[in-house]
Every structure is written in C-alpha cells, then in structure tokens.
Amino acid sequence: MTLDTFFEKFHLFADAPDAVAKMRGLVLELAVRGQLIEASPIHETHPAWLAIQGEIREQKANYELSSTKPFKIPEHWEWCVLNEIADCRASSKVSPESIQDKDWVLDLEDIDGTTGQIINFATFSERRSLSTKAAFEQGDVLYGKLRPYLNKVVIATKPGFCTTEIIPLRPAEFLSQEFLRLYLRSKTFLRYAAQKNYGMKMPRLGTKDLEFAEIPLPPLAEQKRIVAKVDELMALCDQLERQQQE
Q1: Helix axis angle, 177-184 relative to 220-245, nearest 10°?
Q2: Is the peptide bond before 47 cis (omega within 30 degrees of 0)?
Q3: Fewest CB within 10 angstroms: 21, 27, 102, 146, which?
C-alpha cells in the first residue's frame, strides 16, 4: 500500500487516539529517511553533489561520530554534523533598548508545536519584554531549545528578535531551510534531544549538543521534492483534522 492510498483509507481508523498527530509524525519520519519519494536521478547527484559530499567527508574527519546511525539512508545521501552545514551561532544577542517598537518579537508561545507554524506575530511595543533577545534574519530556522519535546521549530518569514530559548540556525546553500526544519521536528531528532537535554523541570537542549547532532543530507533538488511532498501530505492531515472536528 502506498502512502497516498494509506491516507485514502484514513477514515477506517480516524477515531483512534491522536490519529492525525501520528500521521504527521509518520510523514516526517519517512521523509527524513528517504522513503517518501523516489531517489534523485543520477544527473542530480553528479558532479556538483559529489563535490559537496567530498567536502562534507573531509569536515567529518574532525569529529568523533557515532559508529551506529539512527537509520539507514539512501546510498547517495550523506550523514553530516549539523554544525558543518548550518551556522548554529549566527545570531547576535541584543538588549531590549536596541529594539524598535515596530520590530517583530517571537516567543515560544507564538509557535504551534503540533503543526510547526507561527500562530501569533507580536511587536516589541505589544510585548515590552525586558529580557535580552537573539536577532534572526529572514530564512533562519528557529529552534525552540526549551522543552524540546514541544517540537517548536519554524522558519523566519522576516527579520526579528526572539527569546534566547530559541536558537536561530542559518543553513548552508546546499541545505534547504525547509528540509532542516523537517528533520528537527522528526521523531529521530526528538529522541536525540531527549537523550541530550539537561534540567529536570525545564529541560533544554544545549547549543553544543545541537551543533554536534547528525543529520542525513540528500542532494538539494531531492530535498525540495521531499519538502513538497510533505507539504502536500500535511495539507491532507489538516483536511482530515477538520473533518474529525466537524
């Protein structure tokens, strides 16, 4: 049974507890494992991708990587250290005195962890927060490090400032922001974060552990096709959720 057919038969088990949420998780996990779409044609993996792979393998020689991986990836993909394909410290700290009234200020409460979407936009004049903020740029992937199991990861739609409990990540040119966001929201990464976080009442994932996380990387064209398929299936999840509510 294909995944599309599986969605067509969804009504048969739609009343199961958290059925749609489980479907969202399944889609993300299949996507980052390379099992959601067909692999890239050979012309997309050569020669530019081979050059990128070579650079990544040279960089990985500087790290002590785990001998066992979370799952097997397609042969033309590459396991990477996140710090080598995204800048995890691109953001600068900003005092509230430097923020303009009209500037966007993002807090964790503005992010829906279920869908990975921004649900509220607030300006500094509306918040008047006195705490230090982290500056981010449009296109940065914003990762909520506080209580990682809440799965609060979004892409910045414009420049702004966020709580320091959010880490702005700036992907390299061969890493799609959308694909990085998918992986950081996948069950595999949630398990990694659960193993590495610290603090009992308010667990956090440290920036260094985020930097040393391993991520599977397909060619850029394949990343974009995976993201498009995920968007299509997530839209179907939204539709199924609305039908359940009705």
Answers
A1: 60
A2: yes
A3: 102
CA distances to 3, 6, 114, 189 from 9, rounded to whole Å, are 10, 5, 22, 29
Residue 226 near residue 182, CB atoms below 8 Å: yes
**Best CA proximity match to 129, nearest among 94, 153, 157:** 94
Residues ≥6 apart with Cβ < 8 Å to 198: 204, 206
Among 64, 63, 67, 66, smallest CA distance to 84 is for 63
Q: Which residue has the tokens 């530019």?
A: 48
In a structure prediction context, what are the per-residue pLDDT tens digits for the chain, which is 246 residues long?
456 665 666 555 566 667 888 888 889 999 999 999 887 766 666 677 778 888 888 877 777 667 688 899 998 899 999 998 999 998 999 999 999 999 999 999 999 998 889 999 999 999 888 899 999 999 999 999 999 999 999 999 999 999 999 999 999 999 999 999 999 999 999 999 999 999 888 999 999 999 999 999 999 999 999 999 999 988 888 887 787 777
31-44: buried (b, 16+ CB within 10 Å) or exposed (e) per residue? bbbbebbeebeeeb
Strand, helix or coil at 204? strand
Q: How far apart are CA 11 and CA 243, in angstroms?
A: 10
